[in-house]
Amino acid sequence: MLVRERNEHTIAERVQVTGRGYWSGQGITVRFLPAQIGTGIRFVRTDLAKRLEIPASMQTRSSQSLRTCLVAENARIEMVEHLLAALYGMEIDNCVVEVSGEELPGLDGSSAGYVHALRNAGLVMQAHRRKQIVVDRTLRLGDANHWIELAPSDDGRMYVEYRLDYGIESPIQPQSHRCAVTPDNFMRELAPARTFVTHEQAASLRALGVASHVTNRDLLVFGKDGPVDNLLRYPNECSRHKALDMVGDLSLVGADIIGCVTSHRGGHQLNGLLAEQISQLAVCVPAGCRKAA
Q1: Is 199 an annotated catalytic residue?
Q2: What is the pLDDT of residues 181-239, one digit of tens each?
């Protein structure tokens, strides 16, 4: 198997994205800053008195219902998966992300806004090889109904596949999506895919006083006849979005994963468990070495 090696990248100039948090409704500004070799992805809460960097890593990951969060000391960043997916998918390895609040903006429920800003920032190649984990065996986690599997790749690339099936009573039809994770594929196939909920789930959240400002145009809300007040960007947009979430969650490993990841009805919890296993079973090493997961 020929494994593509590459150097680390950062962005050429500062860019920013603004929006409102889904959960809090708070207006948030996100600034992306270039960073030196070996920095990785680091978040900084600019609204706090003490400047504290929160590395995007398995050590700072915190489980939360319906989203992925990072925590360090008294600082917290919520709903990081869409932004992390954009950075990983665009092969941006070193970047400081300044955030003016606890929750990242929901935007339209996808990574498209982040990708647009990062493309405008431009890419700078750095004089250091990107770390890789090359998978040489199969690992499956979960049970018969919900599982995630990691397997070797035949062509030296990372693939993600999501198989969605909520049953015959769900307004969201069974569907799947598989693609190689490259910058072009990420921009075309995954980045525009949006967060989705059923009409009943949306009503339950609003009844709890959560996301009351979020309209049916801010994400995909499925009624019995399909999306409410909205149109699908792809026939299988939901499975594409779940694949996007996988990319963001697995990026916390801190290396390019050379392997195939397949999830059957999984979510953030299983993604996190797989990322933990990858981190424990393989040491991230410079490209050119071969330390398998």
Answers
A1: no
A2: 999 999 999 999 999 999 898 888 777 666 767 888 888 999 999 999 999 999 999 99
Strands (E), 21-138: 27-34, 41-45, 53-55, 61-64, 67-72, 75-78, 95-99, 123-129, 131-134
- 168-196: pLDDT as tens digits: 999 999 999 999 999 999 999 999 999 99
Matching residue, tokens 């009624």: 223
Q: Give Cβ neighbours of residue 3 (< 8 Å, ≥ 6 apart).
A: 132, 134, 156, 258, 287
Q: How far is CA 50 from CA 31, 53, 172, in A?
A: 18, 10, 45
Burial group, residue 223, by CB count within 10 angstroms (0-12, 13-18, 19+):
middle
Are residues 150 and 260 in contact, defined by beta-carbon separation less than 8 angstroms?
yes
pTM: 0.93
Residues 6+ away with beta carbon under 8 Å from 11: 32, 33, 34, 92, 95, 118, 121, 122, 123, 124
In the set 82, 177, 241, 268, the catalytic residue is 268
